[in-house]
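Practice problem 4.
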C-alpha cells in the first residue's frame, strides 16, 4: 500500500496528529488549537503512535491555554503508563499547567534517561536558573518559539 497523504489514513492518523501537535507547541503556530488537541487525543485504530499523540495533544492544550487543559492532561495519563516519551512529555505539561518546578525536573530526568537532547533543553527553559544547562550543545538548528505564554509556562513558579 502506498500512502500519499496522512489525510484519511487510519494508519497514519496518530503519527500525523502527534507531529501537528509537536510543531504547534514548539513553534507557537496554531490557528485552531482545539482542533489539533481533539485530533491528537482521538481514539486511533493504529495504536503505535497513540501515546505520543495523546501526550503531545495534552501539552498543546496547556500551552494554548485551553480551559479544559487539566482534563486533557488527565485523559492522557494512561499514555504515560507504558511509554517513557509520553511520561516525560506529560510531566513537562503538568509543570506548565501547575507552575510547579518539580514535574519539569522530573521531565528532564525522564528525557535524559531515553537519550533525548532537544526535549530536556526545551524543558530546562521552563526552570528558572537552569535554562543554560546543556542547551548550547543540544540547541535546535531552527528558530524555537518558547510557547510559554499566558501563564502556562516560563518561568515556573512565577504564575
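Answer key:
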Amino acid at each position: 500500500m502506498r500512502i500519499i497523504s496522512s489525510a484519511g489514513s487510519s494508519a497514519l492518523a496518530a503519527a500525523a496528529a502527534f507531529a501537528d501537535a509537536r510543531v504547534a507547541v514548539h513553534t507557537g503556530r496554531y490557528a485552531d488549537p482545539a482542533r489539533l488537541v481533539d485530533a491528537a487525543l482521538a481514539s486511533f485504530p493504529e495504536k503505535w503512535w497513540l501515546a505520543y499523540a495523546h501526550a503531545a495533544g495534552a501539552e498543546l492544550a496547556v500551552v494554548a491555554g485551553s480551559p479544559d487543559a487539566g482534563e486533557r492532561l488527565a485523559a492522557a495519563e494512561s499514555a504515560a503508563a507504558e511509554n517513557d516519551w509520553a511520561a516525560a512529555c506529560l510531566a513537562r505539561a503538568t509543570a506548565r499547567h501547575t507552575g510547579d518546578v518539580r514535574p519539569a525536573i522530573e521531565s528532564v530526568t525522564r528525557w535524559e534517561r531515553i537519550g533525548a537532547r532537544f526535549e530536556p533543553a526545551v524543558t530546562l527553559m521552563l526552570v528558572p536558573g537552569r535554562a543554560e544547562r546543556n542547551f548550547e550543545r543540544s540547541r535546535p538548528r531552527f528558530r524555537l518559539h518558547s510557547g510559554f505564554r499566558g501563564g502556562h509556562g516560563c518561568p515556573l513558579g512565577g504564575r
